[in-house]
Amino acid sequence: MLAMDQGVVEEWLSEFKTLPDSAVSNYAASLKDKGALVPALYKVIRENYSDLLEPVCHQLFEFYRSGEPQLQRFTLQFLPELLWSLLSVSAARDPHTSGCIEALLLGIYNLEIVDKDGQSKVLSFTVPSLSKPSVYHEPSTIGSLALTEGALANHGLSRVVYSGPHLQRETFTAQNRFEVLTFLLLCYNAALSYMTSTSLQSLCQLSSRVCICGYPRQQIRRYKGISTRLTVTSEFLVQLITGIHYALCNGEVELGSKALDDVLYRAQLELFPEALLVGNAIKSSLHGAALKSNNKEGARSIQVEITPTSSRISRNAVTSLSIRGHRWKRHDAVDLGSPDELMDISEVDEGVWPGGVGPDMTPPTITISNSVTTLNLGAKAMKKCRLGGRTSKDKEAGPLTTGRAASENTELSVKRLTLTSSQSVPKAGALTSLTRTASAVFSRSFEQVASGNAPPSSNHNASEAGRYSCSLQEEGLGYLSPTPNHTQRSPSISVHLGSDL
Amino acid sequence: MTARKSGSRLETEIERCRSECQWDKIPELVRQLSAKLISNDDLGELLQGECKLQTYLKENPIKQGASPRGPRPKLVEVRKHLTAALDRGNLKADYLQETSLLMAKLCYVEGEYRDALGHYNRVNLDDMQLVGAPVYRLSMIAEAYATKGLCLEKVPAASPSLSNKNTGSPASNRSTTDREQEIITCYEKSGDIALLYLQEAEKALSAGIQNRSPKPGPTAQDQELGYFLETGLQRAHVIHFKNGNLTHGVGRFREILRAVETRTTQNLRMTIARQLAEILLRGMCEQSYWSPLEDPPTVSPLDDPTRQGHTHSKNYSLSRRPRVYSGENLFCPQENTEEALLLLLISESMANRDAVLSRIPEHNNDRIISLQSASVVYDLLTIALGRRGQYEMLSECLERAMKFAFEEFHLWYQLALSLMAAGKSARAVKVLKECIRLKPDDPTIPLLAVKLCIGPLHWLDEGECFGKIVIDMGEKAAEFRAKGYLAIGLVYSLKATDASLRSTQEDYQRKALGAFQRAQSLSPTDHLAAFYLALQLAVSRQIPEALGYVRQALQLQGDDVHSLHLLALLLSAQKHYHDGLNIIEMALSEYPENFNLLYTKVKLESMCRGPEEALLTCKHMLQIWKSFYNLTNPSDSGRGSSLLDRAIADRRQLNAMTLPDFSDPETGSVHATSIAASRVEQALSEVASSLQSSAPKHGPLHPWMTLAQIWLHAAEVYISMSKPAEASACTQEAANLFPTSHNVLYMRGQIAELRGNIDEAKRWYEEALSINPTHVKTMQRLGLILHQLQRYSLSEKVLRDAVQVNSTAHDVWNSLGEVLQAQGNAAAATECFLTALELEASSPILPFTIIPRAL
Questions:
Q1: Which fold has domain B5-156+179-205?
Q2: What ipTM does this complex have?
Q3: Is B354's CB within 8 Å of A214's CB?
Q4: B440-558: what CATH class?
Q5: Range 65-94 of A in CB contact (< 8 A) with B
Q6: How far apart are CA A243 and CA A234, in angstroms?
Q7: pTM here?
Q8: Chain A residues closer than 8 Å to B244 by CB
Q9: CATH of B264-292+334-439, one of 1.25.40.10, 3.40.120.10, 3.40.50.2300, 3.40.190.10
Q10: Rounded CA gap, A373 and A364, in Å?
């Protein structure tokens, strides 16, 4: 380490100690003007045996504890480097443990897991739902939402905890190491926009090294540090990927894509579905986007072009939307003999398809792409046609026997059809209001149960909590029944859950 | 009178046609108009000019991003009409303005940008009325602003001469900034008015459809925006992003998205929603986020610092603005992931609607487009939800993507992974099978399937098939080949444990050993291969060999918990109990909350240090359990997929609140009185017993099962101390949680035995066996009791069954020997005793199989 660097660090160490409290925020703002300081600090952290390491770690912790956001971010920028230092030392089973780095990381962790009042902090977020109006949409315009059990269960906005509460930790153990480090990376990721490119590069390096050390790929990357394998967890990799994603999109294309590849490589070897899932998604979403490397100073590769607003999908293609409006006739159960003849039954206007279901019907016209062709159906098929026509009044909808090529589509659409046919009777508005009532009823009864049993002191037994039932039927019907003319049964869903069944 | 009336009807008709862009009808209407009144001639000129200009643009659309066209078109006729209308000056002021705007547009089309700007300056766009203006005029104004912006971009700033553009003097810099500001303001105004126009046009259209006769007119379907409106709507944010001004770009996106959607803007909204979500996920973090209803931060790390001078502030107001979504209780995101998710869900619903279902070749391109736009959205959804660990919801979303997924590997694979991450193992395996079909060369996929089959599913036959797929890949599988052998070794190892026939057992054990050896030789640096080889050797009681490999595993991975545990058990098998206990304590210093280690510790402690120490460890376990699971929030692991899941999760939480005080096990326990609750527990208890009978599964056990196990261990210690009352109390705690667990019943039998109630004990053991007929320990106790009752042949039968199930249980062999001896079969008895002796010499304190086997 050069004497000059040492001087810079020593000056930095001394000046903060003498700083009055009032000057802290000005000092924080002035830090980024000290050009030589940050590289010098990186050197101190990298050289594990430096005498300066302990005071530096101490000072970085003081910065973090000050609560001043800029000072906290100053400390956070070194996090990837500190993590690597810790992991490499513990993997090499170096007797010279980096106690001060451990202390710094644990200190940050213990500060971050509690809120201002010293209570365990729980990080949560709201899962948005299309069935609730938002600043960006109105539920009725989204179209009929599938009224599945899953949709109902998730109906309304639910608050979900994604991290915490965490236990205070005094030492790193093999068991808690990655739990703590994952949480620290979460804190780092929350401040990604404020991180310098050096810090992002260091994050990418950390990711690569953690993932490849001890594996054959280490040779390819020509990394000559430790060569023991480091244990990782899937959650830790997901947090790394989050950071890499940001780096990739903000100037660090080369290091970032290398790091992403390495993390995915490791995730494959470890068979971690979570990391594979997110990593694959990032790779595939960036595949199309042209990533420019750091061509202009600080240029970010977020680019937006003017895009044509008209739909790029041609009008006569069958889409999920168009097929919804399509009324399927019973007599379309046509066996076309050889499946090659049938390419697809594209959406047919009512006018084209023979409307009257009479015995003297003409052979059905099937539009293939744009041209209308009258297919010469085999005798067998014709027979089936007639049969289908006659039995069309039967309530039972026979399975569509179509060619293999189209069977998947039709199957899909038939399913959709059964869903929409009952929904088409009440107007769309009524349906959404049903959903809304449903959720209201659900959440109401749910809250009652929750509040009823909330006091932990009371000797409630669990049975009461389990006994709630949510019946959408009565309320739902009440909502829909006023219209006398609809003969079809309105959709009713009743969910009973509870101990008294 | 009639003339006037028809005249006004004509005017309405003209206005409607202009609003709906039905230019082909204009000539006919103009003809009718000129027949009515002479003074309408000028209006006729205006209309004809407009009509011809628009028709020209429709036939020769200007493309976004197209390079400056070669020969500039000359629209002589249009110019003639418009000039005529302007020159005579008989028009009303409104119409005069319109003519000027059209003239300017014409100039732009002809490439005369300066002339166009001249016209705009004369009209003064800002003075044009938005309130009460007919719909078509809104569109004209919006187009005019956009065109003005385009012209301003084309014409160099400030001075017409290009020479001083790059001088860089502060003054010229200043004026560039002003110019840029002016351009952006033009586009933003254009965009706002365009949105207003589209909303009004749609309103007018729907009103028109209701009023008009059945003749629906030309299907007033998706109106196309045209070059100018498209530019107006989008150019402002494009410039913001180009300048590195993310804050304003995001702000502009949000303004557009907050405007109530129209049919025409649907595609635009879908694109913009996706783009904004991309920015939120790629370029923002929690700390730099601000909510859509807040003011953006004045200084943001998102903006390019080198262009700090170019800050642009919104400094215009319009007399009328597009309607925005409003109402009470509007959801407004408070975090970047929330907003990204909301936007993506909106895009997803639109992308889903546009899914092209037909598979005819003519629609190939459409299908690719719809697939691409959807998969971008699904990828972003995966990124957002993955970050927050919401795999349950993600798997539901990806399931909706399946209508695009025919032969699309990426979508199938992502669905499989999300199902796996959400814990829906059985479905995940099914989807993985499809993935294998689509991409047969990738060894990861069958390995993922084996992982599920070995772990949560315990589908060993299926697992074997998947493992073989990997092995059959041979060299192609590269680094995954060793993993393949490891996987198949685990399958055989588990099969050996499950097998009831000794010969099959031995067969599988041999196969497992072979596979592990192969894995170890292929990947000598993999500690797992060495470890499982050691474990398999230990199970077949080759203790010294096993010790060798476990040491090797520990050299590769010094703090691997399972290797350490195995080492301790191996030492205990060699009767080095103190050494084993030391290893366990060392392992516990690294894994203080590992219950598996603690169970072994209890056993070893009662052996080496007496039961009091062991009881202290039990108490410690209860404390750990409490601190551990009291903290864990059930919603942590994602939302339950079904209502039942939720109910169970919530019940769990409520239960956790009324937990007994562990320091005093006699009081305040959980009373599961209700029938339904016990039913749930029954189900869980079944899960528990199946778990224990086969092998402890990977992953954290159900917290309640852990608790029950702790109580049972404590009960065992009390039994060894001959304290039936305490043991009974502990067992009762476990019984409250899992009343029908065979372990609980077994423990009750032991307590009864301790109290000398042989008949009661027998009853308990029989009940335990009726739940789990292969519980060896119960069989052994039952055999002993039957022996005491002098029912030798039945006792022999039970013990022989037990030996079949587990041939390494030395105490069973011993009991069998005793029974045979009592029956006078001395020779067979001797053999049994010898076997028992031999097995006892290599018997660990707890079976080796308590160490989980998983990929």
A1: 1.25.40
A2: 0.86
A3: no
A4: mainly alpha
A5: 69, 93
A6: 15
A7: 0.80
A8: 298-300
A9: 1.25.40.10
A10: 10
